[in-house]
């Protein structure tokens, strides 16, 4: 990014050993906080008894993952994950509550179906992924200039993969405009801001009004 | 603060600014209210008023509802206050004087604004009562509508800077402020900023028509904290507006930090005065206006900013 001056980077690299140790301790502590927090809140998603609580636990879990991404130097990806998840989890909570005829989402209910299968699938997936993380041969190559990560990501997205992302972007924009058009004023169920009314069953019938 | 300054100093500074800012918002609200109503402005009473109101809330009895969600209810004001602190911590007082200057400052600010809707929804949902829940649903509709124009208006300021860092965004306004370069930006930002901090005409989740909505069941310290957090969010929005559109520390004669303060307080006065001069609008109308007018205007603003840059 624009703030990347070589002198500052060099100064940061050559800082005293004591500061570096404190920093790495802090990073370790934060990593474990985020990691354990993510797993615990992820577990709570299935053990809690309300859809709204489940959505917020899931949000907390994702926020922890976002924090880990920031610690890894993928600052932009981490913050965007946190940014996107806030809206998505809220919409998810509201949509779930709407479907469940449970006005506040506060009525106790089970958050899982087919308990045994769900537990087995969850534990199995966790073990497989954790095993992969342990045995995989990850590159051991610390990024020398993590402050350039955002720029590199931008070049990756808008350089080689530009066509893919622009196509997806235009498709999403069209979807958004379509969704807004359907939900906007003068929709097929009447004005959006005056409450909706189902159309009558027969074209000319006014019986339901 | 230099980047090397201790995080403790930065946190204390941001907390102190927030405390003073919240008090300032309360005083400004009373002053503007008195002026608009044509009442005499009694300096002593206006300065002591917020303290008296806060003291009254501090000794007020705690009140609960039936089967409420205790952690959510307790968390909501703290979350909103923390988000205001995050947003304010990104605002630079000078080229080297900022609590935090991440390369992705704009994204961090956006994430803080996005989480405001979580805080407000949690605050309205947790009491398990009708009016707060209505307020929560209202804010969800309001937030999903203002999110895009708000972020687009802010994003346009990142284009001339060619950086997402707030310090760089201010630095790029050395010759010409964004308020001149992008005339659509500041009005859009202020309109939607009122919605973000649910203040004045856009105080829909906590509006009087809902018996104070999400804070209808609050009492005592919880109510005090929630009101303080709302005011803190307004301070953060004003300060970020000063940095993003009014050139932050740039200005003649006075030192940079003073300019930041002057501009932030000026925007704060505009935002607070809007609460006394404009009528509250209905949520349906706001949603329609946000999607059909504000988003196209914000897109136009981004396109113009991009075209000027090319």
Describe the model.
The complex is a heterodimer of chains A (209) and B (310). By secondary structure, chain A is mainly alpha-helical. Helix content of chain A is 67%, strand content 0%. The longest helix of chain A is centred in the first third of the chain and has 31 residues, at 17-47. Chain A is extended and about 75 Å long. Chain A starts with 5 loop residues before the first helix and ends in a 26-residue tail after the last helix. Residues 1-17 of chain A have low confidence and may be disordered. With 310 residues, chain B is mostly helical. The mean pLDDT of chain B is 87. The A-B interface holds A 1-4, 50, 52-53, 56, 59, 75-76, 79-80, 82-84, 86-87, 89-91, 93-94, 103-106, 147, 149-150, 180, 184-185, 192-194 and B 67, 69, 72, 101-104, 107-108, 110-111, 114-115, 117-118, 121-122, 125, 128, 133, 137, 140, 143-144, 147, 161-165, 167-168, 282, 284-285, 287-288, 291-292.
């Amino acid at each position: 990014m624009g703030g990347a001056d070589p002198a500052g980077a060099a100064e940061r690299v050559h800082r005293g050993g004591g500061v570096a140790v404190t920093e790495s301790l802090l990073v370790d502590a934060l990593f474990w906080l985020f990691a354990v927090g993510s797993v615990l809140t992820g577990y709570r998603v299935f053990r809690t008894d309300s859809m709204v609580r489940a959505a917020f636990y899931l949000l907390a879990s994702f926020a922890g993952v976002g924090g880990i991404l920031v610690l890894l130097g993928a600052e932009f990806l981490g913050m965007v994950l946190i940014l996107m998840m806030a809206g998505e989890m809220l919409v998810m909570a509201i949509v779930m509550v709407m479907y469940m005829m449970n006005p506040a989402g506060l009525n106790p209910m089970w958050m899982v179906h087919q308990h045994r299968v769900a537990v087995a699938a969850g534990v199995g997936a966790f073990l497989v992924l954790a095993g992969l993380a342990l045995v995989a041969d990850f590159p051991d190559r610390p990024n020398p200039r993590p402050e350039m990560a955002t720029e590199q990501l931008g070049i990756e997205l808008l350089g080689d993969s530009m066509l893919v992302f622009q196509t997806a972007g235009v498709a999403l924009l069209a979807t958004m405009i379509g969704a807004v058009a359907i939900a906007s004023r003068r929709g097929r169920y009447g004005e959006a801001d005056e409450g909706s009314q189902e159309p009558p069953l027969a074209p000319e019938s006014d019986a339901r009004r | 603060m230099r980047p090397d300054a201790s995080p403790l100093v930065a946190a204390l500074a941001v907390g102190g600014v927030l405390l003073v800012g919240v008090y300032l918002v309360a005083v400004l609200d009373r002053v503007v209210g008195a002026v608009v109503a044509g009442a005499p402005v009694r300096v002593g009473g206006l300065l002591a008023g917020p303290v008296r109101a806060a003291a009254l809330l501090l000794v007020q009895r705690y009140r609960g509802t039936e089967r409420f969600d205790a952690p959510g209810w307790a968390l909501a004001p703290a979350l909103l206050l923390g988000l205001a602190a995050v947003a304010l911590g990104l605002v630079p007082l000078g080229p080297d004087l900022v609590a935090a200057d991440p390369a992705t400052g704009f994204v961090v600010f956006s994430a803080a604004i996005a989480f405001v809707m979580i805080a407000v929804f949690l605050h309205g949902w947790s009491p398990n009562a009708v009016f707060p829940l209505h307020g929560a649903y209202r804010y969800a509709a309001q937030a999903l509508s203002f999110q895009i124009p708000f972020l687009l208006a802010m994003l346009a300021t990142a284009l001339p800077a060619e950086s997402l860092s707030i310090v760089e965004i201010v630095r790029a306004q050395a010759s010409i402020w964004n308020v001149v370069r992008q005339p659509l930006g500041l009005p859009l930002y202020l309109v939607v900023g009122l919605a973000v901090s649910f203040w004045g005409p856009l105080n829909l989740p906590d509006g009087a028509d809902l018996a104070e909505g999400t804070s209808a069941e609050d009492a005592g310290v919880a109510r005090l904290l929630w009101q303080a957090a709302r005011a803190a969010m307004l301070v953060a929005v004003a300060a970020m507006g000063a940095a993003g559109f009014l050139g932050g520390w740039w200005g003649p004669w006075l030192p940079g930090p003073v300019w930041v303060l002057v501009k932030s307080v000026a925007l704060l006065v505009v935002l607070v005065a809007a609460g006394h001069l404009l009528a509250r609008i209905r949520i349906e109308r706001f949603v329609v206006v946000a999607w059909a007018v504000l988003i196209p205007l914000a897109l136009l603003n981004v396109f113009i900013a991009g075209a000027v840059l090319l």
